[in-house]
Amino acid sequence: MAITTEELAGGITRVILEGRLDVENSPAVDSSMKVIAGGRNLVLVDLRNVSFLGSMGLRSLVAPALVIRGRGGKMVLLGPNEMVAKVLKVSGVENMIPVHHELQSALAALQ
Amino acid sequence: MSELSHVEQIVEHIYQKYRNIDEGDVATYIPELAKANPEHFGICLVTVDGRIVHAGEWEQEFTIQSICKPFAFQMALEQFGRDDTLKRVGVEPSGEAFNSIELDPKTMRPFNPMINAGAIAISSLIKTEPPELGVQQFVARMQVAAGRPLRIDQAVLASESLTGNRNRAIAYLMLNCGVIDGEVNSTLEQYFSQCSLLVNCQDLAMMAATLANMGTNPVTHERVFDFQYIKDVLTVMFTCGLYDHAGEWAYRVGLPAKSGVAGGILGIVNRQLGIAVYSPKLDAKGNSVRGILACRDLANELGLHAFEFTNIGSNFMQSML
Description:
The complex is a heterodimer of chains A (111) and B (321). With 111 residues, chain A is of the alpha/beta class. Chain A has helices spanning 26-39, 55-70, 82-90, 103-110, and strands at residues 2-8, 12-21, 42-53, 74-78, 99-100. Chain A has a single domain (2-110), classed as STAS domain (Transcription Regulator spoIIAA, 2-Layer Sandwich), CATH 3.30.750.24. Chain A has a five-stranded mixed beta sheet. In chain A, helix 1 (26-39) links the parallel strand 2 and strand 3. The longest helix of chain A is centred in the middle third of the chain and has 16 residues, at 55-70. Chain A is globular and about 30 Å long. The two termini of chain B are 35 Å apart. Chain B is globular, with a radius of gyration of 18 Å. Chain B is of the alpha+beta class and 321 residues long. In chain B, helix 4 runs parallel beside helix 7. In chain B, the strands form three sheets. A five-stranded antiparallel beta sheet of chain B has the order 3-2-8-7-6. Classes of the chains: A alpha/beta (111), B alpha+beta (321).
């Protein structure tokens, strides 16, 4: 699982996740997201190259989202594939963390 | 990719991840069990709509051992009802090992039907005199739950009977305390026979899925268990199913389950899924090492824990809001 971050204009941090967000990989994502959630208020998590999202992986997304929201910030998800989108929908997480399918709308939501 | 193929991928991945884990020891206290191949490792999941996922040596047969206990408890509840059954056995976790010789000091009943004492009390209820019919009735019910003919491993049965002095002691203690009747030999024959039933992973997963599916086998659609008692059985499995590991299991996996010393573990996701894992190497508490690891990963990946944040408590309550 690759995790990269980049700083975009307007104070937005983009976190790019690539690979399977499963039992094996979610601890690493957890640690990275904890650091990001501790210091960033506008976070875009790019899921376009995430092929699988399991239950533990879901926690790795919800935990930082709650921290960021609790501080008055915003976190959004970008571009889940069909499987990932279904997990976000069935689990009700799409109601907690906004899901966008286009980069522009995701960025606009963070403005 | 369909949902099931994701599950297939997860199950295969877990099998590959743990197949070389070599910790634990095969049970030896029943000499026949020591002959199991420690390398064997099988996983099977059956959904309540009848879909089946396998990995590894899922066809390998082994004796059901203590995994017979929830099913015998279900049969006793159906035959005698809650009140009369609970006069013979409690529903409190004992925190003791599976073979503890201890009764609840207040009630003089065994603590619960998942430890040997409680299961022997249940066998005393469902046995017949002579015992052959009671054994046949148990095997017949298990066959319908598994969806295929099953048989008792006579070598394991003989080995259990010959060396089961501790269970004999438990039975006589309960006779002394008035928990069971005087037909101790028939009771023990019923109990040892139940434990010696040969199953494979798919049989166990199908039985688990039958409990999950309100008592109806999800493939044959035969009605096997009275659904009004399944909640009772799942509750006791949740709190007591893994003996003195039950708290840790509820904490980490969060499912009703039952383990057996031959290396099987059966788990249930109510109204959704039956799970079975087989691997004969056991930890110090008598539970399959690979079985526990596999169930932990399944629960974490599939969000199976009863208190996982994605699991809404009561659908019924939802309809009232």
